[in-house]
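Lab meeting, item 3. Inverse folding demo.
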């Protein structure tokens, strides 16, 4: 019996030991201080009955009148369950399609994302973010970071990249923390070897290119090269119109050529910047695939021709595709130069961005938190002013109503006296 107990203890110990790495892998990149809700929940609360608020908004909309930004803010702030998140989504949509749509407050957007995270329905936040035109959800960097980190924690890199895609659309890679989280997300997403649609390839390329332009080191230059590679593949397969649609990209042909220009720049740079092996291999694979598919590209472009204007555009696309053999030759030549100069980094892109996150993310959090605390104070002050203005308007409206009633009563009395 004693031996049996020892055996069970050993088995339990092995199980605990095996589970530890999984727990570590699920840790969020952001610190506990960054994700802590203390500052946000420390804002002065305005408790409301959501049923009464919903009834008020419904009756206001029925009267073809606008709902105030303060009302929708109160509704979102007082969410206390998953079901109420669904209700809030509906009213955010209604508010976006009302005359007051431009006045959705920044703190309401932040509160909406936090509530979705709190009640375990962050996909709702992602849905409204992906359909921002319909809901008016345009988060700041701090809010973006919180949502990205939640998906990274669960190793859901596909959803995390969907958030990064929205950061790209808003061109909001200004904060170092957002850049690091986004690069880490892209690295993790690519490591899953996803099958990318045209839209996903374009978005991935655009995000990498925009982030890569922010820095001139190995990660930045590799991101530029990889970004141009993804976009160049879309351009070669579908034409420049497919590149420009839905992404903040330049309407200039030759993204594969610009990828090679990045390689030439690194080769000519006397600094320490290198290009990772896996990124160079990716460009090599794309060039090979495009070269092997060049015979069928003519048929696809012929199907796309609809008028003379489209035909001329297709001719320009074909002219770019005709440069492929030259691109392949240039790639081999420049890669040889890079290898000779020792400017090919053996570590993978994912390994580099993981090391960057471990090394630099904590240093960037301090400025973010200080800025966030300042914005929370500004939000509180703005909300206080709105409440004061609301009370003044209600008092004025009540005074005008009383004056109208008094005037009506006086008029009725005068008429009664006249009849007598």
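The presenter then showed the designed sequence:
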């Amino acid at each position: 019996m004693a031996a049996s107990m020892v055996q069970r203890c050993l088995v339990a110990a092995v199980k605990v030991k095996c589970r530890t790495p999984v727990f570590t892998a699920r840790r969020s990149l952001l610190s506990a201080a960054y994700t802590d809700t203390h500052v946000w929940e420390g804002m002065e609360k305005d408790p409301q009955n959501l049923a009464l608020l919903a009834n008020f908004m419904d009756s206001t909309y029925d009267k073809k009148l606008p709902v105030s930004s303060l009302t929708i803010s109160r509704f979102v702030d007082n969410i206390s369950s998953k079901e109420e998140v669904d209700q809030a989504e509906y009213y955010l949509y209604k508010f976006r399609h009302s005359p007051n749509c431009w006045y959705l407050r920044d703190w309401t957007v932040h509160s909406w994302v936090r509530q979705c995270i709190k009640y375990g329905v962050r996909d709702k936040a992602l849905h409204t973010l992906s359909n921002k035109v319909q809901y008016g959800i345009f988060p700041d960097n701090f809010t973006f970071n919180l949502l990205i980190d939640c998906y990274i924690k669960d190793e859901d890199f596909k959803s995390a990249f969907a958030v990064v895609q929205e950061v790209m659309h808003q061109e909001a890679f200004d904060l170092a923390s957002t850049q690091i989280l986004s690069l880490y997300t892209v690295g993790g997403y690519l490591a899953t070897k996803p099958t990318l649609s045209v839209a996903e390839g374009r978005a991935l390329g655009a995000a990498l290119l925009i982030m890569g332009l922010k820095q001139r080191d190995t990660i930045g230059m590799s991101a530029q090269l990889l970004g141009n590679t993804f976009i160049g593949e879309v351009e070669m397969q579908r034409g420049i119109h497919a590149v420009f649609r839905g992404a903040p990209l330049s309407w200039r042909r030759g993204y594969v050529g610009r990828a090679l220009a990045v390689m030439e720049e690194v080769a000519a740079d006397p600094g320490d910047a290198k290009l990772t092996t896996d990124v160079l291999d990716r460009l090599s694979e794309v060039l090979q695939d495009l070269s092997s598919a060049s015979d069928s590209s003519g048929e696809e472009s012929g199907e796309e021709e609809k008028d003379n204007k489209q035909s001329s555009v297709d001719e320009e696309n074909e002219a770019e595709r005709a440069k492929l053999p030259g691109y392949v030759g240039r790639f081999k030549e420049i890669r040889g130069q890079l290898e000779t100069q020792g400017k090919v980094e053996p570590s993978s892109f994912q390994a580099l961005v993981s090391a960057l996150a471990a090394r630099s993310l904590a240093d960037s959090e301090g400025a973010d938190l200080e800025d966030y605390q300042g914005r929370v104070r500004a939000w509180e002050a703005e909300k206080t002013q709105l409440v004061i203005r609301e009370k003044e308007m209600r008092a004025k409206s009540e005074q005008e109503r009383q004056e109208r009633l008094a005037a009506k009563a006086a008029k009725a009395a005068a008429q009664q006296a006249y009849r007598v």
